[in-house]
Fold these 2 entries.
Entry 1:
Amino acid sequence: MGRERIYLCLAHMSGNEEKYIKEAFDTNWVVPLGPNVNGFEEDLKQFHGGEKEVVALSAGTAAVHLALLACGVGPGDEVLVQSFTFCASSHPITYLGATPIFIDSESETWNMDPVLLEEAIKDRIEKTGKKPKAIVPVYLYGMPAKLDEILEIANRYGIPVVEDAAEGFGSLYDGKMCGTIGKYGVLSFNGNKMITTSGGGALICPNKEAKNEIMFYATQARESYPYYQHEKIGYNYRMSNICAGIGRGQMTVAADHVAHHKHVCDLYRELLADVECVTLHENPSKKYDSNYWLNTILIDSDLKVVGEELAYEEVIQGAVGGAAGVTHESKSLHTDCEPNKNVEAMRIFLDKAGIEARPLWKPMHKQPVYANNPAYLNGVSEELFKCGMCLPSGPYVTDEDVHYIVDKIKEAIIK
Ligand SMILES: *Cc1c(COP(=O)(O)O)cnc(C)c1O
């Protein structure tokens, strides 16, 4: 029948990316600086309201790392981070010799629970005698967090907020652009994000001085001498002028991308309305304006799905969805925290129908590598992880695709 596989969110070069890359080649700006880097930073600055400064970096992970460094995070410090996230939110805390302290989610936005946040701050101060150095909320799948509450607490205790807006590019909270609300804002342009530079990221900074400091650390921390003089440890984190060219092209269609993801959400809402036991994750109120980077559903635990008895029978080869890179062979069919059988069965059913679907992020406090880290929990993220699933939402996903996906979801349900 020749139907193409439908992916979650593929890179889509529909702007004038080639023009900017060609310019880079023609002028030999094939280094991590140049007109495209400056132009991309200016485009990002304007897209985010024009008041804050932006530094283009080699990855979103690098942006998290440098933001924490700029907040003074160092060995022996603690950082409060949302547990329900991709590992790039918390790993850089460990790069700095500090300890991630995990905060569970509330069930409306699926992001950092402000109640647990304050509980954690009080408890950490009591236990260690020190204030945590930073707070890292995440905008999971594009959904803004409860920022009024989080910022009120952060300000009261005098702790800086680093927004992990890697998935929240173009999302708004109370009319404000995500990434511009805390002290620093992290963006990612990995291949599957709202816009891409093939790989890359950026840090939104409060002012020129902060931007200069980030640039200093992103370029190996060199002092002004006619030779290499180092008084600080730096990193090689600048974005290449080639990648920035892709970014400039993507910025010409960024608003279209966001609009498309929202349109796909509207269609899922309409088509899933009469599907019982399957719930689409949506803006909890008018204050929230998610970019719907990935549309996600929850599947009731008692819903019966075709093939449930076979779920988890086979060892998975590589990472789900064929993520790039090398994975270790898994040692067992199960872990102590995994999606429900009906969710895994749905994933396999959709996979066989040529549809990529994935579980939600597995909470960091359930990851073996963080087994000994303090965590402030309410059970929400674990429950969401067990019931949730990401559906195709990117620029290549057509209306016809969404109809097909929902038809297949209905087909997989045993009445
Ligand atoms: C993608 C992502 C990042 C940054 O990742 P890079 O691949 O390094 O650009 C950070 N946090 C979250 C939540 C992400 O999804």
Entry 2:
Amino acid sequence: MRHISSKLIHGTTGKEDQQHRSLKTPIYQTASYDFESAEDAEKAFRGESDAYIYSRIGNPTVTELEKRLALFSNADNALCVSSGMAAVSNVFLTLCSSGDNIITSPYLFGNTWSFFAKTLKEFNVEVRFVNLENPEEIEGNIDRNTRAIFMEVLTNPQLIVYDFKAISDIASKKNIPLIADNSVLTPYIFESKNLGIDIEIFSNTKFVSGGATSIGGTILCYPSDKWASVPKLAEQYEKFGQEAFYKRMHKEIYRNTGACLSPNSAFLQLLGLETITLRIDRICENALRTAEFLSKSEKVQHVDYPALKGAKYHDLTQKFLKGKSGCLINVELDGKENCFRFMNNLKMIKRGTNFCDNKSMIIHPASTIFWDTPAIEKALMKINDNMLRLSVGLEDVNDIIDDIQQALGTL
Ligand SMILES: *Cc1c(COP(=O)(O)O)cnc(C)c1O
């Protein structure tokens, strides 16, 4: 069996274009498609052929990306959508009805938190924010209307690594679908299928896009019999069994939300997949070296990087994440003023809010991403004024460390 990096370069068939033998997948920049006959059109609409109909429903460039992502993760079905948030919203609109509840942690990507706490709430879907590090608390919150347990694989910016086996065991025992957001690490580091996860989502905008070239999202579906117990999917389960979730999402929710990925973005993300393992390996090496350097500086009060020896989640990182924890490092300095001075004195590292980019960048979360979060919630989310979030990039690690060293020298 070939290594995943070879599979991501060559895809399922080893051929990207049957017609002209182009070595890159063509960008099918079209809204609709020509049918050979009226009969063919009828068949396509009835789902009796795989002819393309309209690019909101399906597009060949996007299909190739979906096939490549299914290879990446060993998922049965992959659906690409217009953003990571489109992936989040499509999943919960497929699963939940009024009166249902879902269980998650308060440590979430900002818009996911807002989707749960505000958008879903208004449709009478209750989101229970619990401590996912406490199995009893998870179990105690499950009832007959619980439709999912949702977790982020590495929370940002808290950098928590859960005991995924413990959470997965509860989800299996209670027959509750388990959903993971793997944006920060991707299937290269965290293998959802082996951990009994039913649905995985991620933002292609991060590592898949190949250095922040485009916005996109993915929903990966693993075979599951849990759909039998979800009232909204009961009918699909009778027809499609373990694919019930994918079928309803693909046929209905995806089309109705109109959250399709553009073929141009799919092309960029296919290119991104060709180098993704290389980039992740280098970024993890760079980040570990950078975290080691920071942990030795006396100007730094605390460094948090899960793969670093002695870090709180080091053992769980070894156990579930192949010893790798991606690009994010939390750095605590003595007060907000020092954080700002340090940021302003960086010469190469950019001040910006993205991560998994080829370029290193840094942000002060308390005054930006969380600027209008009430103090009590900030404390709950472990966001403090002393903390910087550094996203390590692909530059030569000595240049990254030199830049940090000279900026620390100004404090
Ligand atoms: C970036 C991100 C998202 C949202 O992705 P977009 O492509 O920006 O919509 C969701 N979850 C996590 C964990 C993310 O990092």
